[in-house]
Amino acid sequence: MAEAPHLPLDHVTLTMAEALARAEAFQSLMRRRRTVRDFSDQPVPRALIEAAVATAATAPSGANQQPWCFVCLSDPALKRRIREAAEAEEREFYAGRAGEAWLQALAPLGTDAEKPFLERAPWLIVVFAQRWGEDASGQRVKHYYVPESVGIASGLLIAALHNAGLATLTHTPAPMQFLTEICGRPESEKPVMIVVVGHPAPGCQVPAITRKPLDQVAVFR
């Protein structure tokens, strides 16, 4: 296979002070990011969603195959269908499928089978992982490092949405195959998560959690 053409890297070199200031400012921004379950129905322009998804699509991926699809839904009928299907799965989850240990771990967060945010929030972004692709002749093409690639892209998506002043919730009903049918996606794609997007409702509250300090999540040697 011929080597792909190369281009000069578009890179801006910062001074140490500039780099540190940017890093600390971004850290401060992201420390305020919280998962929200109480959304306002305030509209969010499609342009904001497009910009965030375009940012997510800049993520690195195995062999640059970009094995993701972001289905962005604002249609009330589709959101209702997703809520109804998700709540059906969640009722079974909370009725015993999860197991006692899992339910105990979730108890401090106050979650249950009711998911009104799936209808109230103005946007749902359903993230799909493309398990394989097709070449020009329709032959299946293997994709590499799909979970890792889609995970990185999803993280960039959440960061981009938070940077735009929007609130998010990652929702992962199990199983999720109903999303493939509702979103009209092919067999080659696997639903990974729903990212609920909007503005927090007035007076929104979140659990009083703490994050692990740096010395518990990083090792420097």
* Strand count: 6
Rg is: 20 Å
CATH topology title? NADH Oxidase
Q: Helix and strand string, N-terminal first?
A: HHEHHHEEEHEHEH
Describe how the helices and strands are arranged:
Layout (H helix, E strand, L loop, with lengths): L15 H16 L14 H11 L11 E6 L2 H22 L2 H7 L10 H4 L2 E8 L1 E3 L5 E3 L3 H18 L3 E5 L5 H7 L5 E10 L15 H4 L4
Antiparallel strand pairs: 1-2, 2-6, 3-4, 5-6
Helix pairs in contact: 2-6, 3-7
Task: Give a short summary of the structure.
The protein is of the alpha+beta class and 221 residues long. It has helices at residues 16-31, 46-56, 76-97, 100-106, 117-120, 146-163, 177-183, 214-217, and strands spanning 68-73, 123-130, 132-134, 140-142, 167-171, 189-198.
Give an overview of the whole structure.
The chain has 221 residues and is of the alpha+beta class. The chain has a single domain, classed as 3-Layer(aba) Sandwich (NADH Oxidase), CATH 3.40.109.10. The chain has helices spanning 16-31, 46-56, 76-97, 100-106, 117-120, 146-163, 177-183, 214-217, and strands at 68-73, 123-130, 132-134, 140-142, 167-171, 189-198. The strands form two sheets. Strands 1-2-6-5 form a four-stranded antiparallel beta sheet, sandwiched between helices. The chain is globular and about 55 Å long.
What structural keywords apply?
221 residues; alpha+beta; NADH Oxidase; four-stranded antiparallel sheet; two-stranded antiparallel ribbon; 8 helices
